[in-house]
Write a structure and sequence with these properties.
alpha+beta, Heat Shock Protein 90, five-stranded mixed beta sheet, 53% helix, 16% strand
Length: 425
């Protein structure tokens, strides 16, 4: 419909322009000065026959039946008579206006001049005024049609599109309850019903998603509860073995196993509670913690003994012991998975922070991905083909920030470094 209107609009104004140009060109041919040769000769003879009477006149405005205007002057350039005010009354003026000048001859003597007025300029001005009016009318018609089409577009296209835009904004904001007003009369009428069907489907999909999420959380909660039972049994058996064992090395190993079972028990408990809430609701309870605890945490998190040096400065930090164990464990585990090289750990003080840097030599990640890998479900390009969910660094960053600290990642030239900034007490 829009294309048909534009074609009709173009054809109409093309035809109108053609007719107007043809009319202007044709009217231009008619503006040439008419040739009144016979009439002028007849008038000249009449003036010569009545010269005695005419020469006695002095600037007399004369009524004339001729189709043209004229003036009569004598040899002294004195105006004798004329038929219209404003016409040429001297030879020089007549020459400048391209008037016809004829000699008045009596008894073979030139006694005066007949000046026939050339009205071409007046005709030309009248033609210009007429053409200007025609062009103005055409422009006015085009303006009216354009304004009318603009109003049509605004009512039938722009306004409905605006309503669709507002509807899309509401849907994006999560409002799936307000239906879209149906209007089959506008250009988007065929789409409004489809958009509203989309809203209904999104609403139904959201309900299904919420039900699936709740079901998954309930499953995780049930599994978490079931996992705690065998963990409790393992802990009980380890406690018993510690009591009956006389071997110091064996007791040390059992103590490490006991510590890990305690950690698993706490993690499972957290998972049970977090399954019923958002991930960010995992509780973080920082407290005063001696930095030497990090040596134990690093040792327990490095079963493959890839940490070749761990320089830990002695101080007191503000941290959650359990969450710090998870964070360091996540970082070392990632190094095992993606770098599989020796690990170097160093610490230093910076203003009011204790900084712990864990570095490997695995080549690092592209610089443009450094800010992304700590986002939820984001993994670096070096993670292709390797198991993982992209949640470890995200959780670690969340834990450190809840301790009023900061987690940063950067490339060290040889590999990848994770820097933990923990507040000093």
């Amino acid at each position: 419909m829009k294309r048909r209107f534009i074609v009709i609009y173009a054809l109409f104004f093309s035809l109108l322009s053609f007719l107007m140009c043809s009319y202007i060109l044709d009217s231009g041919k008619k503006t040439a000065m008419p040739q009144y040769t016979t009439e002028i000769n007849r008038l000249l003879i009449s003036i010569e026959e009545n010269w005695n009477d005419i020469s006695a006149e002095n600037a007399v405005l004369t009524d004339s039946s001729e189709k043209f205007d004229y003036a009569v002057i004598d040899n002294d350039s004195r105006l004798l008579c004329y038929t219209k005010a404003g016409i040429s009354d001297t030879v020089s003026a007549a020459t400048g206006n391209f008037d016809i000048i004829r000699d008045i001859v009596c008894n073979n003597n030139v006694v005066g001049k007949l000046i026939v007025h050339n009205n071409y300029a007046e005709q030309k001005r009248n033609d210009d005024i007429r053409n200007t009016k025609m062009i103005g009318c055409m422009a006015g018609i085009m303006l009216l049609v354009s304004v009318g089409y603009f109003i049509f577009l605004r009512r039938r296209v722009v306004a409905p599109f605006g309503r669709l835009k507002d509807f899309a904004v509401r849907v994006a904001a999560g409002d799936l309850d307000t239906p879209l007003e149906m209007d089959r009369g506008n250009i988007f009428g065929a789409f409004t019903e489809s958009f509203d069907i989309m809203r209904e489907e999104l609403k139904a999909s959201r309900k299904r998603e919420e039900a699936a999420v709740n079901s998954r959380k309930e499953l995780i909660a049930e599994l978490s509860h079931d996992i705690r039972n065998p963990v409790s049994s393992i802990k009980a058996m380890v406690d018993y073995l510690e009591l009956v064992s006389d071997n110091a090395e064996q007791k040390e190993t059992l103590a490490a196993i006991n510590g890990k079972t305690n950690q698993i028990d706490k993690l499972v408990s957290n998972m049970f509670h977090a399954a019923l809430e958002e991930l960010e609701q995992l509780e973080v309870s920082p407290e005063e913690l001696p930095s030497r605890e990090l040596q134990r945490i690093i040792a327990e998190s490095d079963p493959l003994k890839k940490v070749k040096s761990a320089d830990i400065k002695d101080c007191v930090i503000y941290a959650d012991k359990l969450r710090l164990e998870q964070t360091v464990g996540n970082i070392i585990s990632n190094s095992y998975k993606y770098a599989d090289t020796d690990i170097t750990i160093r610490s230093f003080f910076e203003e009011n922070f204790f900084v712990l840097e864990i570095a490997d030599k695995g080549g690092g990640v592209p610089d443009e991905e450094l800010e992304l890998i700590t986002e939820k479900f984001c993994r670096g390009s070096n993670a292709a083909g390797k198991d993982g969910s992209g949640i470890g660094l995200y959780i670690s960053k969340y834990f450190i920030e809840q301790m009023n600290g900061e987690l940063m990642c950067y490339n060290n030239g040889e590999g990848f470094t994770v820097s933990l900034r923990l507040r000093l007490v």
